[in-house]
Design a protein that fits this description.
This protein is an alpha+beta fold. It has five helices and seven strands. The structure holds iron/sulfur cluster (2 copies). The site of one iron/sulfur cluster (SF4) has 11 residues, from helix 1 and helix 3.
Amino acid sequence: MSAIPGKSCGSCNMCCQILDIVELKKDAGILCKNCVSGTGCKIYSTRPQVCQDFECEWLTERSLGPQLKPDKVGTLFMICPDSEQYQAVTDPKRPTAWRNPLVFKHLVAKAKEGHIVVAKSGVTSWRVYESGATALWT
Ligand code: SF4
Ligand code: SF4
């Protein structure tokens, strides 16, 4: 999958902050030391393969409009490579961002498509069901 034409990361650096990147010894929630505010990745041409390979769902899914861009809604959408869960990972500074009606509506729609949808905020996770119900998820 590759980025939909017309979409680009721009000033967003959510994945460089939110994700745990073993290759960089970077914990989840901490902005990568290679990320320069307003400029982006300072080692872009030599960034690790894991960074080169990562594209969030917003970047690759046509149905996700500009209003759902990760830095705008404080939520990164991704398919977990290990579990295949459809995950909504929130900005640590905006822990309830996944409950934003726009984000939540999208998560319910993904659940209706048959995905296991999980919203993650720090160490706490919730399953989001197609009915719109939620439950703590371990
Ligand atoms: S979260 Fe998505 S849009 Fe934002 S920088 Fe990462 S890949 Fe790009
Ligand atoms: S190395 Fe670059 S692309 Fe990778 S997380 Fe750090 S700032 Fe982002």
